[in-house]
Specification:
mainly alpha, 3 helices, elongated
Amino acid sequence: MQKDPPIEQLQFVNAFDECNALIFNRYCDPMWKLKRWLRIMSEAQFAIHIATLNRIVQAYIEDRKRELEGNVENVSSNMGCSWHSRVEC
């Protein structure tokens, strides 16, 4: 039995697909720059999807930073020094 993907992954994929479709539609719409400036119609949807992508990616980056900081602290504590003085150890 296959597990369902996390909700963040589904939101990311959906927002990414919608952004791709909206960018493709810009080629057919000569008024897209005006719509973007006014944040109306499809460009309002685009802004919402971009905000979703930014939120999810930022959360992922912060999680990875915390994970890497924890790994550096574990390695440096095993070596008997702080991460600031890794070169000196």
